[in-house]
Design a protein that fits this description.
7 strands, 91 residues, 1 helix, 3-stranded antiparallel β-sheet, 4-stranded mixed β-sheet
Length: 91
Amino acid sequence: MQPDLVVVFWGITASQECECGAEGFNAADYAAKAAAYLETAVVVGANAVGERHYGRFLPSVYCGTSGYAFPDGKKIEADCSNEELVLFRIE
């Protein structure tokens, strides 16, 4: 299959908010890696924001950092990575 668009709902968390956006804690970075791997699709990396109240490794926060990426490696990240709702217009 060669999709045109893929949406991935990440669950990227960090132990502290200051880690968010760094290598390994960025949904837009993961979207760029997935788009390069697929070679045909724009990949949207959607992630939650705020405190995570369940699971192992607490306390932790969802990092936001939602965005999308093209197969050529160009990525667009949300201007405000901690907004609860981010809208993108993908050309």
